[in-house]
């Protein structure tokens, strides 16, 4: 609905003056014809200049005195002309006082998304959000930026100012928003936006989620682990994202890491820019997660002018990489690179070209495609900033097997971006709950919560998100923390019986506080009426209900592992 409304608003902004011009001409012509017919035969009144003058007066609510019967043309013009005048005045005033009117509208806007920064990435994200039906408020420092006019035309509201300032975020309606997305530029700028947003988060109603972009993938992982460990304000969730990490997942979802019939898969990555490095790590991670008892190792050929330093850096950050994959390094420039350098390790399941210069990247991809001949090996090339070059490859007669990949288009999507770490945890929590209830014989008929995530009521989704956000606080209570999953083969931490009981009681207290905050009261279970019989102290719960909380706690290490993190004992420094 909101997406259709935004498209209508955009169409009106484009067509309003031509449409009003057409209505002015129509009203004038109808008035001219009507007056000519009414005064036919009266020389003093029916002269061309007199008729023109009378027709123009219609726009000022002066319809003239004409004998009965009044021609229908004049009758229509009497209403159309002043209505057109009034509309033109309103449109003109709206243009003059656009900022003031936007401020008024913002006071009544709730449950919206605030996007901070209208650079290329921010503008693309606003487009995607509007197309998906979200209500969007954009914050941009530069009032002369062409993106300001573009997103307004598409239906977004814009606040001009520095997103690091609390008053600017307050004007953008952050206290009543669902999401704040910081894409304002440097990592420290985005971090400052996240801090200010947390200070403005409301203590009532649904939590505010802030997603801050961090360019360095390793720093992003560390910051996310720190945030998962707890310490955030009540009713506020801070998540960090990296488009290269998400881009690698999207690319490998198109071309999965799967074993050949008699050998392990062989992937080639040409260019170790940030996307290329993320691809190497994510391919190894997916191969390790999906191979089961498969003893074979993933084969990777990586090609870059600085390949030795970059691979050693990756293996230093991810020691498990060397235990999962055989990485063949090829030190080479890109100008004369051909297919023989790529296939020296054997036939490839896929070739991914990740070079920052789009023209150079496309040249390399075309040469590789020609060298591979009629091979079915897909060759992907990142052309994030060159829509024209990407368009050439999408034509019907384009080179087969060559696939353009737009990093920004694939990662700056609402379903990916808004599905951050807490969303991953929330979905996993619900999936574990459904499986556990199913093992105990429950059905959707006996338990209305046993439905897919998409069918789950919003209040229950929010409860799952809140449970995921509270993991760090529970772990801190028993002297544990959260860290990136450094060893993919390590056994997960298990809790003692004493720890389990304490954490289960904390989980119930969290659940009860969250329910009461959202307006639930004590009574027979009724999701629609927000009634629950379990809004009582821990000691008054039946043991089967306590067991649900214990099981939720037992699942914590597995839930964190799904998101790439682990429970660690001892204080985190």
Structure notes:
With 573 residues, the chain is an alpha/beta fold. The chain has 4 domains: 2-96; 99-241, Rossmann fold (3-Layer(aba) Sandwich), CATH 3.40.50; 254-411, 3-Layer(aba) Sandwich (Rossmann fold); 425-569, Globin-like. The chain has 25 helices and 16 strands. Strands 3-2-1-4-5-6 form a 6-stranded parallel beta sheet, with helices on both faces. Strand 1, helix 6 (120-131) and strand 2 (136-140) form a beta-alpha-beta unit. It is globular, with a radius of gyration of 31 Å. The model has no long low-confidence stretch (mean pLDDT 82).
List strands and helices in order, with pairings.
Elements: H1 2-38, H2 43-46, H3 48-57, H4 72-96, H5 98-107, E1 113-116, H6 120-131, E2 136-140, H7 146-154, E3 157-160, H8 166-171, E4 179-182, H9 187-200, E5 208-213, H10 217-228, E6 236-241, H11 243-254, E7 266-270, H12 274-290, E8 298-304, H13 307-317, H14 321-324, E9 325-331, H15 339-342, E10 350-353, H16 358-372, E11 379-382, H17 387-393, E12 402-405, H18 407-411, H19 414-417, H20 421-439, H21 458-469, H22 471-477, E13 480-484, H23 497-517, E14 521-522, E15 531-532, H24 543-554, H25 556-562, E16 565-569
Parallel strand pairs: 1-2, 1-4, 2-3, 4-5, 5-6, 7-8, 7-10, 8-9, 10-11, 11-12, 14-15
Antiparallel strand pairs: 13-16
